[in-house]
């Protein structure tokens, strides 16, 4: 007889085994479904239904194993082959995957990008339209994917660093919708070849220094497109190359684990213990997942048979992770052959059903629009004077197109309309014109919206609060105004963090944070290494998680080091997620005039053309800068604030409402009214122009001086053209190279605002020289616009 206790243990054991068996078979199901999705998706591209495809085949088992330990509240900063991660975590479904492959602009179908990104670019929302942070702890979160290799790495530092702040800063502990005491991990994934990028190395170094809960998975399939690993990585192994970073007792660094991408049981065993350690200790780790295969090659743009040997291709077939997992299941008697065959057949059906449903949802509204077009165009063949054959041809070609696109319909309608302009009064033509205009308007909204945030998240909706001064207002150096501002800000807003090179102990190179680290602690105001790229990433990740980082680039000249994540990631984020993900990072820097080539930069043309989607603020003094920070902190949009480098020791009055007044973005300020000529500038140049205006006034010339204040957005109310209507003369002045910032302002006023209609003389631009500014005071004088240049230009305009 079996005793009750033994019987109970036996039942529990059987139940435990049954649960284990179900979990394994479910994991195998996910791997099979993902493989079938890859096979079908490739076919859809090659048959022309989709434009391009890049797939995660060969990585299914490793990604399923990783995803088992991905919890609500965690973040993914991933690689565009992570489809299995998305399926296993529930972030995406196969149908949504196909909708994105087809570029379906309906956000109900492609919730990640509304058809704006190619397949396997996933994103989850973090803010609602009312400016409220969602409960990220109830979600499995994904930072929006992007294609630049290793571009996902810098922000991974910040996503993990946020957990460190949530754990160690007591004032954040009540933010239960954003954190569980900092127990969240950032899962970063990357292909082995992309570890050659500097982004990867800077990220790993920063993570090792900061000691943050970052789990980096390197999918190693032996190639970077066609280039073998031995030509990519020192010692032919990223884990071996990184050995010096391995954490040992009494040191920082990170743990390193090596696993085989086809070894389901081995990966689960390693991942479970390792990820638990990361979550508990905040020690980062690198997982080198080796012996990954790539059954369909790199992408749909070519075949891997062109560059892989027969031996390699044979090995890849033998070590296919799905086949290996299947064999392991059979060897361990977890189910019979019939059950596996059924799982595999169901996986095919699931993928096919997802593809079919996604395609029908994509093509149906297009075909409905095509029918509307045909119904409106066909009657034109009966209109007197119409080109019946042209109309009939457009209709026939569209009806013969089995896979029409929106552009095909619009091009056909435009072709008919442009060739029947003489009949524009005809009711049939008017009906087609009305249809065309409406359809074009709707589709432009689908494809051209959400470059910036809307509603409560938009900087444009922050109420203006005028600056106020007491009668006995104290006069301080500009840096002292900022110092008092940042002191109040850090005191009253626990979500604000400031960090960068020399920001902490010495209070930044211009002393705006002097003494504040000692007062508020090194977690709130932090020194970093010289690593602009990951300083930006640190800020991006923190901002994605609900904190308000002020990330500093010490001098504007060095923005190039951090430009890639700002341009590819931050500036495009609102657009490429169709408004569902927000990153309200504030990048603080200083520029314009000082001394020498790399400390006097003003590359505004480069900045405004690469950062569309961000706000670019160019305050002329530190009070204005403080007001702009206040505005930005009341919205949820990213910004670059460029303080005037030579303005920190100029005297300014201290406002009485320093922490509450706001400077509206996109609204120029008229600093002095005049009647003869409008001078448009910003930043340090305002002082040069003011000096020139003293001389011009003595010469009887009345100038109106306008400080644009922000370049992005630029003069949203078209106030500059109102000044031009009065003066009929205008000049744009800045310190960028010729054709840079001045050309941008010129285009905005002359073209967008129609300013050319009000000109009496040719408009002017006055910029710096085409070369970098030379060193020294004389170098500044001859390299950048000076007072005499402004006077000469205005006098020439008056004499013209």
Oligomer: single chain
Give average pLDDT, whole number. Answer: 95
First and last CA, distance? 115 Å
> Using DSSP, what is the number of strands?
22
Low-confidence stretches: none
**What is the CATH superfamily classification of the largest domain?**
Thiamin diphosphate (ThDP)-binding fold, Pyr/PP domains
**Shape descriptor:** globular
Task: Kindly provide the radius of gyration, computed on alpha-carbon positions and rounded to a whole number of angstroms.
Answer: 30 Å
- Give the biggest beta sheet: 7 strands, mixed
Bin the strand percentage. 5-15%
Main CATH class of the largest domain: Alpha Beta
How much helix is in the residues?
Answer: 40-55%
Largest sheet, order of strands side by side?
11-10-12-13-15-14-20
Q: Classify the fold: give the CATH topology of the largest domain.
A: Rossmann fold
Structural class assignment: alpha/beta
The CATH architecture of the largest domain can be named as 3-Layer(aba) Sandwich
Tell me the number of structural domains: 4
The number of helical segments is 25
Keywords: Oxidoreductase, Thiamine pyrophosphate
Pfam family, one: Transketolase_C
Organism: Chitinophaga fulva
Cofactor: thiamine diphosphate
């Amino acid at each position: 007889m079996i005793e009750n206790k033994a019987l109970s243990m036996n039942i529990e054991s059987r139940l435990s085994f049954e649960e284990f068996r179900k979990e394994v078979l479910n994991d195998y199901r996910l791997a099979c479904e993902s493989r079938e999705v890859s096979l079908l998706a490739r076919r859809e591209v090659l048959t022309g239904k989709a434009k391009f495809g890049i797939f995660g085949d060969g990585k299914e088992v490793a990604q399923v194993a990783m995803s088992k330990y991905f919890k609500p509240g965690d973040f993914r900063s991933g690689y565009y082959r992570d489809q299995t991660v998305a399926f296993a975590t529930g972030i995406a479904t196969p149908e949504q995957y196909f909708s994105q492959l087809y570029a379906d602009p309906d956000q109900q179908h492609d919730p990640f990008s509304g058809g704006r990104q190619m397949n396997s670019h996933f994103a989850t929302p973090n803010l609602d339209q009312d400016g409220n942070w969602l409960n990220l702890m109830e979600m499995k979160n994904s930072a929006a994917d992007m294609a630049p290799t290793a571009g996902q790495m810098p922000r991974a530092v910040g996503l993990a660093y946020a957990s460190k702040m949530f754990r160690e800063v007591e004032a954040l502990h009540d933010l239960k919708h954003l954190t569980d005491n900092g127990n969240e991990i950032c899962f970063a994934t990357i292909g082995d070849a992309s570890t050659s990028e500097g982004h990867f190395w800077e990220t790993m170094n920063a993570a090792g220094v900061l000691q943050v809960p970052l789990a980096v998975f390197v999918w190693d399939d032996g190639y970077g497109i066609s280039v073998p690993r031995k030509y990519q990585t020192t010692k032919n192994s990223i884990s071996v190359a990184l050995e010096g970073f391995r954490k040992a007792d009494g040191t920082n660094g990170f743990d390193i684990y090596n696993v085989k991408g086809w070894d389901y049981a081995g990966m689960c065993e390693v991942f479970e213990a390792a990820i638990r350690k990361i979550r508990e200790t905040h020690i980062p780790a690198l997982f080198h997942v080796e012996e990954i295969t790539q059954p369909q090659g790199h992408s749909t743009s070519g075949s891997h048979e062109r560059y892989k040997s027969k031996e390699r291709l044979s090995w890849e077939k033998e070590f296919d992770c799905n086949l290996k997992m299947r064999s392991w299941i059979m060897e361990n008697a977890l189910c019979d052959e019939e059950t596996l065959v059924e799982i595999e057949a169901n996986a095919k059906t699931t993928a096919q059903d997802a593809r079919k449903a996604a395609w029908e949802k994509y093509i149906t509204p297009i075909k409905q629009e095509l029918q509307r077009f045909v119904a409106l165009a066909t009657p034109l063949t009966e209109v007197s004077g119409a080109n019946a054959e042209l109309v009939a041809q457009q209709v026939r070609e569209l009806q013969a197109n089995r896979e029409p696109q929106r552009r095909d319909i619009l091009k056909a309608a435009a072709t008919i309309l442009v060739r029947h302009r003489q009949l524009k009064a005809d009711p049939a033509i008017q009906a087609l014109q009305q249809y065309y205009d409406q359809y074009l308007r709707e589709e432009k909204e689908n494809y051209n919206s959400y470059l910036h945030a809307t509603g409560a998240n938009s900087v444009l909706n922050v109420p203006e609060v005028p600056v106020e001064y007491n009668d006995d207002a104290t006069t301080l150096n500009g840096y002292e105004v900022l110092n008092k501002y940042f002191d109040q800000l850090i005191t009253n807003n626990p979500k604000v963090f400031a960090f960068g090179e020399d920001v902490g102990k010495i209070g930044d190179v211009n002393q705006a944070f002097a003494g504040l680290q000692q007062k508020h602690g090194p977690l709130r105001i932090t020194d970093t290494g010289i690593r602009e790229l990951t300083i930006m990433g640190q800020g991006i990740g923190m901002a994605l998680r609900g904190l308000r980082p002020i990330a500093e680039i010490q001098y504007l000249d060095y923005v190039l080091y951090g430009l890639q994540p700002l341009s590819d990631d931050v500036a495009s984020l609102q657009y490429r997620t169709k408004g569902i993900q927000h990153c309200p990072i504030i990048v603080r820097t200083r520029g314009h005039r000082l001394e020498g080539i790399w400390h006097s930069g003003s590359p505004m043309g480069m900045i405004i053309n690469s950062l569309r989607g961000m706000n670019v603020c160019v305050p002329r003094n530190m009070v204005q800068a403080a007001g702009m920070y206040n505005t930005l902190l009341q919205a949820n949009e990213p910004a670059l604030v460029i303080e005037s480098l030579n303005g920190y020791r100029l005297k300014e009055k201290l406002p009485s409402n320093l922490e509450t007044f706001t400077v509206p973005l996109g609204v120029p300020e008229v600093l002095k009214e005049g009647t003869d000529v409008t001078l448009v500038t910003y930043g340090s140049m305002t002082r040069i122009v003011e000096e020139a205006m003293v001389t011009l006034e003595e010469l009887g010339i009345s100038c109106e001086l306008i400080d644009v204040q922000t370049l992005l957005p630029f003069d949203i109310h078209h106030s500059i053209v109102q000044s031009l209507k009065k003066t009929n003369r205008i000049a744009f002045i800045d310190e960028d190279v010729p054709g840079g910032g001045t050309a941008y302002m010129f285009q905005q006023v002359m073209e967008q605002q129609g300013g050319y209609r009000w000109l009496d003389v040719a408009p002017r631009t006055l910029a710096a020289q085409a070369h970098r500014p030379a060193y020294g005071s004389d170098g500044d004088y001859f390299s950048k616009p000076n007072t005499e240049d402004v006077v000469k230009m205005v006098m020439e305009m008056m004499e013209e």
